[in-house]
Specification:
The chain is mostly helical and about 230 residues long. It has eight helices and no strands. It starts with a helix and ends with a helix.
Length: about 230
């Protein structure tokens, strides 16, 4: 039964990614109306918001499993934290790129030091440092400990990014608030579906990267054993 589930889950996940992505494209380009001011450029928003939100989710789990690793010292916690941090960094990069594209069309500039953009860039640099640490030649446990601390510190910036438009004067629009965010019903339906359906892509990315890191650890452990045996001989 367990083996059947192991084989069924990847297929279900892959099918969900394809189906939800296809539905999302239909909603974006045929169901949601074209915004009067920005035109088709506004549709970048339906990609920008999902990658931003799921980047935050990735950083949350990176920090959560980093805490568990520091407490339990179990390698699996480190691997899950590492996988989420890498996926989060990828999604944060896409967030900055799509945001710049939207900003150029909306504000006339690729970048402005708006509080939300600035805190998002700081978050990106923190996890860029995380990835650099992961590549440095040092004892594995020491590397894991430093990376875990960086992941926890990095997540502390997430609430600042999320609430930046409420904490400071910002030109970045607040998508959802008590008045509904100024979205037409069809736009709101589309963006909610895009955000929720992106969960399948996020799960696939995290799962795939976790498997890669697990295999890398096995190969590293095997290599260490072989070297030790050669030294003993």
């Amino acid at each position: 039964m367990v083996n059947e589930m192991k084989h069924t889950y990847p297929a279900f996940l892959a099918a969900s990614v394809v189906i939800c992505t296809a539905i999302a494209q239909y909603l974006i380009y045929f169901y949601a109306p074209v915004e009067q001011t920005l035109g088709y450029a506004q549709k970048i928003f339906y990609y920008h918001l999902p990658v931003a939100w799921w980047a935050f989710v990735s950083f949350f789990f990176a920090a959560l499993f980093a805490v568990l690793y520091l407490l339990k010292k179990e390698e699996n916690f480190n691997i899950v934290s590492h996988a989420n941090a890498e996926v989060g960094f990828l999604l944060a990069t896409l967030t900055l790129i799509t945001g710049s594209l939207w900003g150029k069309h909306s504000w006339g500039v690729w970048w402005t030091w708006d509080p939300k953009l600035t805190t998002a860039l700081i978050l990106w640099f923190i996890f860029a440092a995380y990835l650099v640490i992961r590549t440095m030649p040092m004892p594995r446990e020491q590397k894991n400990n430093i990376a875990a601390v960086i992941a926890i510190i990095g997540f502390l910036d997430v609430p600042l990014v999320f609430f930046a438009t409420r904490l400071w004067r910002s030109i970045h629009p607040a998508v959802f608030h008590s008045e509904g965010g100024g979205l037409e019903p069809a736009m709101a339906h589309t963006v909610v579906f895009c955000v929720l359906s992106f969960a399948f892509i996020w799960l696939w990315l995290v799962r795939y990267r976790k498997q890669q890191l697990s295999q890398e650890l096995k190969l590293e452990t095997l290599k260490t054993k072989l070297l030790y045996q050669e030294e003993q001989e």
